[in-house]
């Protein structure tokens, strides 16, 4: 009988105690999304070794192409510890997407997500693991706001107030029966995430909220923990994260009929309409013929929309440097058909100077529809 039939790994000899033969299958996978966290990687792995001494575990660092050498630091550790793995993501960003890729690449039946900045208490992992493994829950959330939990000293008063407001919005809008839907520290059976993965957003920071909203029948338990201060590096929270969070709430409240990206594209388009009408009115006031004024206004709005969509809507696929310029050229080429159609439609509707804005809105609607369909598929396709 050959080795493949007996299940013995090729090249492994249990009698010799080969390393491959002696490795146990991981019971728990910990996914850690990173962006410029080099100084924290070694400290986190050391803490995991101590906290999970009685559990077969692996840790998957999913790095968004950090510039500080984070991925090199992970690989240095992985060279001497087979439980440490690295995924380097190129030309795409976003904590939710990084978490999802890490979870889907994991090998254990139970998976945890935690930050790489040492603010999450790794000593809670073993208690969370026992609950899920024992069948007490499908998901365990480490909560800052449950009794005995705390975020004191780790967040500013403004950030604390914002976090609590976001939590109340999630609870009221999505009816989530949990204290801390904004937590980035949780554990679940991997099959739960596998089932809802196609419906999860790759944008934003709060994948937990997305999973919970997409799995209403899931059994959830919370345990308290103290949210610690960051030791090294800088927080990734910014105004874009807030906007993405609001978009996620609306998307989930609509039953995913409205995607987060489409909503963002619509918001940018609304601002673009204002730019378009402002430019059109200004040019008409200067005596330009309507067709010329309309064309110039549409190209002005197009440049505005491209820049804002690149920075916001397609943040995870953002084009930079030379790619920004080539992207604009591609965007302009695709939108040229929309410009021609928009000018034609608006010229037909422009029968009364006092109702110039009706013709302007018609052109904007035609251009926006074309822009979204073509550029989502071509200009900002994953590279």
From TrEMBL:
Record-linked Pfam families: Glycos_transf_2, GtrA_DPMS_TM
Bilayer disposition of the protein: Multi-pass membrane protein
Entry protein name: Glycosyltransferase family 2 protein
Record carries keyword Nucleus: no
Domain GtrA/DPMS transmembrane: 265-380
GO terms under cellular component: membrane
GO biological process entries: glycolipid biosynthetic process; polysaccharide biosynthetic process
Family to which the UniProt record says this protein belongs: Belongs to the glycosyltransferase 2 family.
UniProt keyword terms in alphabetical order: Glycosyltransferase, Membrane, Transferase, Transmembrane, Transmembrane helix
GO MF term list: dolichyl-phosphate beta-D-mannosyltransferase activity
Domain Glycosyltransferase 2-like: 29-194
TM stretches of this protein: 262-284, 290-308, 328-350, 356-373
Superkingdom to which the source organism belongs: Bacteria
Cited InterPro entries: DPM1-like, Glyco_trans_2-like, GtrA_DPMS_TM, Nucleotide-diphossugar_trans
Organism: Mesorhizobium hawassense
Subcellular localization(s) per the UniProt record: Membrane
């Amino acid at each position: 009988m050959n080795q493949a039939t007996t299940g013995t790994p090729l090249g492994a000899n249990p009698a010799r105690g080969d390393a491959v033969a002696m490795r146990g299958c991981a019971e728990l996978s910990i996914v850690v999304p990173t962006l410029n966290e080099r100084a924290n990687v070694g400290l986190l792995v050391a803490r995991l070794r101590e906290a999970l001494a009685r559990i077969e575990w692996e840790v998957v660092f999913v790095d968004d192409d950090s510039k500080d050498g984070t991925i090199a630091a992970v690989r240095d550790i992985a060279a001497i510890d087979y439980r440490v793995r690295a995924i380097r993501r190129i030309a795409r960003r976003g904590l939710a997407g990084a978490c999802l890729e890490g979870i889907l690449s994991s090998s254990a039946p139970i998976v945890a997500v935690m930050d790489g900045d040492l603010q999450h208490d790794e000593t809670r992992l073993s208690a969370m693991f026992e609950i899920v493994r024992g069948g007490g829950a499908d998901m365990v959330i480490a909560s800052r706001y449950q009794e005995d939990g705390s975020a004191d000293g780790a967040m500013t008063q403004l950030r604390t107030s914002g976090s609590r407001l976001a939590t109340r919005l999630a609870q009221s809008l999505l009816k989530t029966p949990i204290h801390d839907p904004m937590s980035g520290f949780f554990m679940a059976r991997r099959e739960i995430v596998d089932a809802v993965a196609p419906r999860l957003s790759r944008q934003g920071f709060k994948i937990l909220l997305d999973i919970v909203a997409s799995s209403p029948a899931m059994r959830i338990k919370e345990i308290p923990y103290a949210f610690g201060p960051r030791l090294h590096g800088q927080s990734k929270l910014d105004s874009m994260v807030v906007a993405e969070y609001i978009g996620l709430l609306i998307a989930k409240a609509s039953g995913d009929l409205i995607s987060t990206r489409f909503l963002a594209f619509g918001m940018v388009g609304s601002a673009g309409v204002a730019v378009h009408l402002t430019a059109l009115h200004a040019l008409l006031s200067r005596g330009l013929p309507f067709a010329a004024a309309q064309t110039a206004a549409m190209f002005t709005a197009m440049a505005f929309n491209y820049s804002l969509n690149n920075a916001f809507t397609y943040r995870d696929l953002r084009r930079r440097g030379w790619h920004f310029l080539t992207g604009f050229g591609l965007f302009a080429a695709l939108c040229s058909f929309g410009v021609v159609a928009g000018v034609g439609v608006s010229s037909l509707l422009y029968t009364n100077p006092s109702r110039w804005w009706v013709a302007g809105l018609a052109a904007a609607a035609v251009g926006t529809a074309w822009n979204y369909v073509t550029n989502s598929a071509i200009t900002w396709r994953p590279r």
